[in-house]
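quick q for whoever's on today - can somebody do inverse folding on this one?? i tried earlier but teh output was garbage lol. tokens:
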């Protein structure tokens, strides 16, 4: 497992956000999780948008 979840730091209509640790380098990360039973999955689309915007100011790294 690459990431270890530490604690829940937020939630919204499309999922929960956790503080995590990248176990290979100790870096703190945010991990967003969505139920596999979600009627309208959003994470795939969100990750595609983040990849398009990658490198912009204030844009998270994926």
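ok took a stab at it. sequence:
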């Amino acid at each position: 497992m690459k990431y270890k979840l530490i604690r829940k730091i937020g939630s919204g209509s499309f999922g929960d956000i956790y503080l995590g640790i990248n176990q290979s380098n100790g870096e703190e990360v945010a991990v967003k999780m969505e139920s596999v039973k979600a009627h309208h999955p959003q994470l795939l689309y969100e990750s595609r948008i983040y990849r398009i915007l990658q490198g912009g100011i204030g844009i998270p790294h994926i």
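fwiw The radius of gyration is 13 Å. also The mean pLDDT is 92. so keep that in mind when u check it
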